[in-house]
Automatic annotation (TrEMBL):
GO terms for biological process: carotenoid biosynthetic process. The gene is crtN. This is Dehydrosqualene desaturase. Pathway: Carotenoid biosynthesis. InterPro entries: Amino_oxidase, Carotenoid/retinoid_OxRdtase, FAD/NAD-bd_sf. It comes from Egicoccus halophilus.
Length: 497
């Protein structure tokens, strides 16, 4: 039986492990951390169950398809439902709105802010639909094995139809005049670590995805998805070994022959690395991370300042997902991407216990705050910045009627340096490498190593990119490539229920 070693039990590594096992490989996963999940991890303390990483679940069909594609019933492993509203938005002038599921209700919310915006939303959503389906068909769900496959004559018209030449904020600005609605329909670029003012218009598919395809929630939080993947892997015969960091990729005769650990080497027919791609190049292969195009510099995404609060009592007027816009939206993102501190940042607040009360003891809530921030390469006094940002958020929430300060029972903080150290992320870039036009598709690090045979990659810094659904697609694409290039000795069987 063909043996595959997977390094990293993040969502990408687990998804790929399940697919490989179903295809007939003998699969073993090794994880550096004490539990699976990668940056989608868990803080458990005092009856609280707090997700550390991604919290907004999009593209439900891709998530559930990961289970269905290996012969399993998704409902046996994950329970996912759509949230209404998708999120509540607090604007700097004191107004607020809900992104409702019902189209008529959403249009009414938009009309309240800008007369005529409801009807224009329909036009905007139609463009978003075209971008979403076109991007998935022609770019996101395809392996690109050569420059010609991506930029060939047959694909060139797609670059025009998908608006890669136009900034996202200009496309949004043609539909909505009120600056609040321009914020509402561009902030989503931060899902993949992009600046809304420089992101290409193709990423207008993100607000379409939020408002039309929907924001979903998995019972048990995002770690419920991780646990479902772990059970799926176990049902398929995958062995998962945690608390076992690799020290390098075992190299022999121009190929990856397995992984090296402090307690010895493990050999395999193929090796799949789910660790952060630039980190893996430096730490496991002793290479400088390089852009696929010679002479082109890699661009790293930003990071985040995360606060995780266990709170006694209610959370006021918050919903499960909340967006808090500051009064200098453009300047905020300019500073984030310039490696500077912004004094009054926009931020995101997640209260998962409003969707799943079982995540905390009775009468308590979890409040998860994410403040987009420069990555850990920035010359910032991080200890001071943690205290400053914490005070800003608590004060700003109080101004919005949410008083938490005296009711926080415990807190955890993950700042950019801790993202880098604890989760082995180059520069603490929580979203991986940037998703600029020069780093997508074939121009993103490939899922096959260009120098060592039998070495493959999965994760947010490889094609197609960051976010739970994209990483799951990354797992599908790399598995398709492995099966094509390195067929297993025999085929597998469907998962056991």
């Amino acid at each position: 039986m063909t043996r595959a070693l997977v390094l990293g039990a993040g969502i990408g590594g687990l998804s790929a492990a399940a697919r490989l096992a179903h295809a007939g490989y003998q699969v073993q996963v090794h994880e550096r951390l004490p539990r699976p999940g990668g940056r989608s991890n868990l803080i458990e303390r005092g009856g609280f169950r707090i997700d550390t990483g991604p919290s907004i679940l999009l593209m439900r069909d891709i998530v559930e398809g990961t289970f269905a594609d290996v012969g399993a019933d998704p409902a046996d492993y994950v329970s996912i439902r759509r949230l209404d509203p998708a999120y509540r938005v607090f604007f700097a002038d004191g107004t607020r709105m809900d992104a409702k599921v019902d189209r008529a209700e959403l249009r009414a919310e938009l009309e309240h802010i800008e007369p005529g915006a409801g009807a224009r939303f329909d036009d905007f959503a139609e463009i978003g639909d075209q971008l979403y389906r076109g991007a998935r068909e022609h770019f996101v769900e395809r392996n690109f094995r050569s420059m010609r496959e991506m930029f060939g004559v047959s694909n060139l018209p797609q670059f025009v139809s998908l608006r890669v030449y136009e900034p996202m904020h200009k496309l949004v600005g043609r539909h909505f005049r009120d600056p609040r609605l321009r914020q509402l329909f561009t902030f989503n670029a931060m899902y993949i670590g992009m600046n809304p003012f420089t992101a290409p218009a193709i990423y207008a598919l993100l607000p379409y995805n939020d408002t039309v395809e929907g924001v979903h929630f998995a019972d048990g939080g995002m770690y419920g998805v991780v646990e479902g993947l772990v059970r799926l892997c176990e049902d398929l015969g995958v062995e998962i070994v945690c608390d076992h960091p690799a020290t390098g990729v075992l190299q022999r005769d121009g190929r990856a022959a397995g992984l090296s650990f402090a307690d010895g080497d493990l050999e395999a027919d193929l090796t799949l690395v789910n660790a952060d791609w630039p980190w893996a190049q430096q730490r496991l292969l002793d290479r400088e991370p390089r852009h696929p195009l010679p002479g082109k510099r890699l661009r790293y995404g930003p990071s985040a300042m995360n606060f995780y609060w266990a709170v006694q009592g209610d959370v006021g007027n918050l919903e499960a997902h909340n967006i808090m816009f500051g009064d200098d939206y453009e300047g905020n993102f300019r500073d984030v991407f310039a490696g500077k501190v912004h004094e009054r940042p926009s931020y995101y607040v997640h209260v998962p216990t409003l969707a799943d009360p079982s995540l905390a003891p009775d009468g308590h809530h979890i409040v998860y705050v994410l403040v987009p921030h420069s990555n850990s390469d920035a010359p910032i006094d991080w200890a001071h910045e943690r205290d400053r940002v914490r005070e800003f958020v608590l004060h700003d929430l109080e101004a919005k009627g949410v008083t938490l300060r005296e009711r926080i029972q415990f807190e955890e903080v993950i700042d950019p340096p801790r993202w880098a150290e604890q989760f082995s992320l180059a520069r603490g870039a929580t979203f991986g490498l940037s998703h600029s036009v020069s780093q997508v598709g074939y121009l993103r690090p490939h899922n096959k190593d260009p120098h060592l045979r039998d070495l493959y990659y999965v994760g947010s810094s490889t094609h197609p990119g960051a976010g739970v659904p994209m990483v799951m697609l990354s797992a599908r694409l790399v598995t398709e490539r492995i099966v094509d290039e390195h067929p297993p000795a025999r085929r597998g069987a469907p998962a056991r229920a």
